[in-house]
Amino acid sequence: MPKYIFAYHGGKMPETQEEGARVMAAWTKWYEELGPAIADGGAPVMSLKTVASNGVSDGGGANPLSGYTLVNADSIDAAVEMAKGCPILEHGNVEVAEAMEM
Question: DSSP readout, 52-70?
Answer without folding.
Answer: ETTEEEES-SSS-EEEEEE
